[in-house]
Amino acid sequence: MPMKAFIIDHEPLMAAQLKKILLRISSSVSEISICYEGEQALTQVMQFKPDIIFLTIEMPRFDGISIARRLYADMEKLPVIVLVTGSRELVIQAVQLNALDYLVKPIQEQDVRRVWDKFLKLHPQPVAASGGEPTESSVKNGAKGIARDKPYSKKFSVNEGDKIKIIDSAKIRLVYAEKRKVFVVTTDGGIHQSRLNLVHFEQRLPEIKFFRCHRNYIVNIDEVQEIEPWFNHQYLLILKGNPPQQVPIGRSYVSKIRDYIEL
After folding, report:
1. InterPro entries this protein is in (predicted)?
2. What is the DSSP letter of 208?
3. Which of 79, 83, 91, 166 is the most exposed place for a label (fewest CB within 10 A)?
4. Global pTM exceeds 0.85
């Protein structure tokens, strides 16, 4: 039976590393979703219905312990929880919350294997009748760090007054989050609010053109016309438009830009 894993961590590089390890060590993982915001985690867990959650304790605003307690209170069938922490002093909380186990950052593959083997012993998987080799599509999707069980979306709905407008993904210049709301900027300069979150856009926009350059921004690479140095060895993307729009590249995402632009 395919297993679904959910990672909650505000550090994109750490989350991507854990996801990469999980995809490498287990063929039974069919879907892995990542949430970078503690406030959004509860809703996304309810929708995704994972079998196991890797939950980071130390997160801003809404920490992992608070999330775990809410999950225990709100979910009828609770997924297995593995706590992730940067401090061994917090490991005792894994015991208090009845978590399956814990991982200490920096995460090591052998520790993930230990936790995963423990999980499988509690949840043994039946032998499949036919081969379960990953498809070419799943390998390609996993290589970029996003596991998808659905095709890319060609169209998205956005709000326009009291109506719902449909826009082509090719006409999206930028998707960004601001004050717990998500907005879509189109190539004609229009700005529309969306009920979807950034993770949904990240998973459903074609990754050959769209990439997350910051925890609050997803950009269309075809709309980038310049890159400017910024303070603290960071950079700004200058997008097409009148006037051009500046988008920061998060420090954790600087290396990712090189997958799209030769620097």
Report:
1. CheY-like_superfamily, LytR-like, LytTR_DNA-bd_dom, Sig_transdc_resp-reg_receiver
2. T
3. 166
4. no
